[in-house]
Amino acid sequence: MNRNLLKFPMKNVFLILSFLVGFQLYSYAGLSSDSLKTSVLKQLGIKETNLKEDMWTEKALPHAKTQTVMVVPHLIDENETEGIFTLDAIIVVVNNQTGKIIQKYKEDNFIFSDATYLSGFTIDTAPYMLTKEIRAFGIRAQFYGSSNANPYSEVQLSLFVQEGNSLRKVLKEQVIESSSGEWNTDCNGRFHNMKSWILFETGASKGYFNLVIKERSWIESNEKIKGECEKKITDKQEKKKILHYDGELYRQ
């Protein structure tokens, strides 16, 4: 053994280790959120003033740390007085180290909001394994009704796979949560609720695992009794359906 190595100061060893760890963390950190946003908008040719800013969202992919998914809400038209707007939904996967767009998907005139309005998007990075190798990510769109006496809400899930320089939608606007009903805006009312979970089974269609949707529904009834608002849950039901991939989309 080289005795000079034994004499190497331990503080230098710690400095080297700190440098290496710091370098690795920096390499994963990439560009700041603002820098990524600026780069993406420049490549898309969209001005920041033409965004529905409150609907912009982004999230790094947990299985590909150098890639970030962004939902770019390109505002086409808006009537703020009536609460109506139209936008193009552009979904991109960007290299968060360089700011370069890797894949893109665009849906023109994605939503026209009035009585039922779009409130925002959520990027879902759960492990949606379509095959043993292909993993999809999800985009959830949240909708609400504007009526106070007849409340309504809904969450729609779409799944996307990365292919070359594009994104392909394989599950189209599947309703996974909903709630609707009628009440007196104080207590008394009746509401229909549904929530579902997505699983994949080993059976496959056109090379993709079949998609199982387990759905749970219930009715919530509220009534004021002796000044207290009492809640009762009834009509609980559970069911499931299987969607098969037809080479383009998952369908029942």
Please, could you describe this protein's structure?
The chain has helices at residues 3-6, 10-29, 33-44; strands at residues 57-61, 64-79, 84-95, 101-112, 116-129, 135-145, 152-163, 166-183, 189-205, 208-225, 228-245, 250-251. By secondary structure, the protein is mainly beta. The strands form two sheets. The chain has an eight-stranded antiparallel sheet, with no helix packed on it. The chain has a four-stranded antiparallel sheet with strand order 1-2-3-4. It is globular.
Major beta sheet, specifics? 8 strands, antiparallel
Structural class: mainly beta
Order of helices and strands: HHHEEEEEEEEEEEE
Binned strand content: over 45%
| Percent in helix | 10-25%
N- to C-terminal distance: 69 Å
Report the principal-axis shape: globular
Query: Which runs of at least 5 residues are low in confidence (pLDDT < 50)?
Result: 1-8, 10-28
How many DSSP E strands? 12
- Count of helices? 3
Instruction: Tell me the strand order in the biggest sheet.
Output: 5-6-7-8-9-10-11-12
Q: Averaged pLDDT, please? A: 87
Radius of gyration from the alpha-carbon trace, in angstroms: 24 Å
Structure described in brief:
This protein has helices spanning 3-6, 10-29, 33-44; strands at residues 57-61, 64-79, 84-95, 101-112, 116-129, 135-145, 152-163, 166-183, 189-205, 208-225, 228-245, 250-251. By secondary structure, it is mainly beta.
Write the SSE topology.
Layout lengths: L2 H4 L3 H20 L3 H12 L12 E5 L2 E16 L4 E12 L5 E12 L3 E14 L5 E11 L6 E12 L2 E18 L5 E17 L2 E18 L2 E18 L4 E2 L1
Antiparallel strand pairs: 1-2, 2-3, 3-4, 5-6, 6-7, 7-8, 8-9, 9-10, 10-11, 11-12
